[in-house]
Amino acid sequence: MKKHLLLFIIAIFFIPQLSIAQNSTKKYWVTGWEIPFQWAKIDNDGDESGNVMRFAPAINIQTLFNLDPSKAIGFFTGIGVRNVGFIYNVPQQPVKKKFRTYNLAVPVAFKLGDMTRTFFYAGYEIEFPFSYKEKTFRNEVKDDKFVVWFSDRVPVFYNSVFVGINLSKVFNVRFKYYFTNFHNKDYTAVVNGEEVQPYKDLNANVFYISLNISLFKNVRFYYSESDFKK
C-alpha cells in the first residue's frame, strides 16, 4: 500500500512533463528537487534550548505551473511533497527526539525581476501531513521508533510562507517559515492506563533554508526578447 501511494505521488509530478514541455514559453511546468536544512523555534514550557539542525534531502519533490505575463512579473502554483521536521535534545535529559512528517503541499506565489535572468519570489503554502515519524534516542542509542499514517499527533494542515531568489536556470535558494505549531498540542494518548498529552508544553515552529534544483532542463524556464513580442 505504501509503495503504491509513493508511486502515485511520483507519477503526479512526472507525467505532466511529457505533454506540456513544448507548449508556450509563457505557460510552463517545472519539476524539481528541494534540499532543505531545517531548524525549529522551540519553547518547551519556557525552555528554548535543544534545537539541532536537520538535513532532509529526501523526499522533497515538486511540480510547478508558471504563468509569466511579462518579462518582469510572474506567478506559480502547483503541488509538492515535503519532508518536514526537527531534531530536539531534551534539556537536562540524555534524550534526543527526531520528528518528521511527509506533507502534500500546494503553493501560491508571485515572481518579480527579470524572468530571463535573476528574479525574487515569495508566497504562501498550505501543507497536509500524511505520514508522521518519531524516533527517541537515549544515551545516543535508539530506544523507540514508530510511523503513523494520517496521525492525530500533528495538525490537519500547516500554514507557511516563503521567499526566495532564482539564481540560474537550474538553481534557486528559498527560506521558509511555518506559522503552525509542528505538533497537535491537544493530542492525548493512553500510557499505562493513564491519559497523557506528550506535546502539551512543546511549541515548535519549523523553518528552513533550501537549495532547489530543476530536474527537467529540457523545459524552457526563460525567454528570449522575441517571446514577448508575439
Structure report:
Helices cover 8% and strands 57% of the residues. The protein is mainly beta. The protein has a single domain (2-17, 30-229), classed as Lipocalin (Beta Barrel). Strands 1-4-5-6-7-9-10-13 form an eight-stranded antiparallel barrel. Strand 6 and strand 7 form a beta hairpin. The longest helix has 19 residues, at 2-20. The protein is elongated.
Topology (elements, then pairings):
Layout: H1 2-20, E1 27-44, E2 51-52, E3 54-55, E4 61-67, E5 73-89, E6 95-113, E7 119-138, E8 141-149, E9 158-166, E10 171-178, E11 189-191, E12 194-196, E13 202-214
Antiparallel strand pairs: 1-3, 1-4, 1-13, 2-5, 4-5, 5-6, 6-7, 7-8, 7-9, 9-10, 10-13, 11-12
- Give the helix level as a range of percent: under 10%
Query: Which CATH class is shown?
Result: Mainly Beta
- Let me know the largest β-sheet: 8 strands, antiparallel, barrel
H and E order: HEEEEEEEEEEEEE
Structural class: mainly beta
Mean pLDDT: 86
Q: Which sequence of strands runs across the widest sheet?
A: 1-4-5-6-7-9-10-13
CATH architecture: Beta Barrel
How far the N terminus sits from the C terminus, by CA atoms, comes to: 48 Å
Query: Any idea what the radius of gyration is?
Result: 20 Å
The shape is elongated
CATH topology: Lipocalin
The domain count comes to 1
How many DSSP H or I helices? 1
What is the assembly state of the chains in this entry? single chain
Q: Give the low-confidence spans.
A: 12-24
